[in-house]
Specification:
This protein has four domains: 105 residues, no CATH class; 30 residues, no CATH class; 63 residues, no CATH class; 69 residues, no CATH class. The chain is an alpha+beta fold. The strands form two sheets. It has a three-stranded antiparallel β-sheet. A three-stranded antiparallel β-sheet has the order 4-6-5. It is built from twelve helices and six strands. The termini are far apart.
């Protein structure tokens, strides 16, 4: 009914060569009873047109594929469907298409049934995107066609978020990496507008980029020279300025003797040299030599 040249299935299965190419697929879909399609649950009576494969038939298919899908005697092949039979099938499907609205909205028709109806009745669909709409051409197996133009769907951008979220990010931007900002937002009950999902470091990075929020400290290598966005220097630069080793500068940071911050226990220190602490302790070392 379906797997013939003019049928609704995506490919024909009327010849050995066509079946041989898809032998493994056929074995899988018949074993799972995905094919041939039949929506009614077993054990609730018999239905007209019910032709499920028996366990013995499925076993034969599995064994045939496992043994190499060898071709049998061509003389045992059944006669292919006649043009009259195929035409009759098309007429029956066309009749179903005429009553499609009734069948489609019936209480007993679920979404899976509707999907199957579409697969049976539609030959193909052509989509053509224009500036602000999509032109859709539906070609039915009966030979008819339907032209539809629908507005192009607008998807919420992943960088859109609530004003409170942006404000919190701006406050934490210079001192916290994306991971910590995401954790803080999630713990505060905020969710992304895109799908109402939790924030992730990647989504925070996207928000930074589209909102021009300074990059997080961890994105600046510890061996980079010069100040970062908030004017702070790393321990290597400060050690060079003071003529001391980096370990000594790190010790001062841990003891709170310098205006220093870092985003985590293993993250680099970032020191503000234009601060009262630094000016009082090192009055002659408040600027790098040019």
């Amino acid at each position: 009914m379906c797997h013939h040249p003019s049928g609704p299935a995506p490919f024909s299965l009327l010849t050995y060569s066509a079946i041989r190419q898809r032998a493994t697929l056929i074995a899988a879909v018949t074993k799972s009873r995905y094919m041939p399609p039949w929506k009614a649950e077993p054990g609730h009576g018999d239905f007209i047109g019910q032709q499920p494969l028996t366990d013995a038939e499925i076993s034969v298919i599995q064994r045939w594929v496992d043994e190499g899908a060898v071709e049998g005697d061509p003389r045992d092949l059944p006669s292919p469907p006649s043009p009259e039979t195929l035409a009759s099938t098309v007429r029956r499907l066309s009749t179903a298409a005429q009553n499609l609205q009734v069948v489609w909205h019936a209480i007993s028709t679920d979404d899976k049934d509707r999907k199957q109806l579409i697969r049976l009745l539609i030959s193909d669909v052509i989509l053509l995107r224009k500036l602000d709409l999509i032109h859709m051409t539906i070609r039915w197996i009966s030979g008819g066609r339907l032209e539809i133009e629908i507005p192009y769907p607008s998807f919420r951008q992943s960088h859109e978020s609530d004003a409170e979220v942006i404000e919190m990010m701006q406050e934490m931007a210079s001192t916290h990496p994306d991971r910590m900002i995401a954790e803080r937002l999630n713990a505060s009950g905020y969710r992304r507008r895109w799908g109402q999902e939790k924030f992730t470091p990647r989504s925070i990075s996207t928000l930074r980029r589209y909102r021009d929020i300074p990059r997080c400290p961890d994105h600046y290598p510890a061996d980079r020279s010069g100040p970062r966005g908030d004017g702070r220097y790393n321990t290597r630069d400060v050690a060079r300025l003071l003529g001391r080793c980096q370990e000594y500068i790190g010790k001062l940071c841990k003891e709170g003797k310098l205006d220093a911050i870092r985003s985590g226990p293993k993250s680099p220190w970032w020191i503000k040299i234009e601060s009262p602490q630094f000016t009082i302790r090192y009055p002659a070392r408040t600027a790098f030599p040019s």
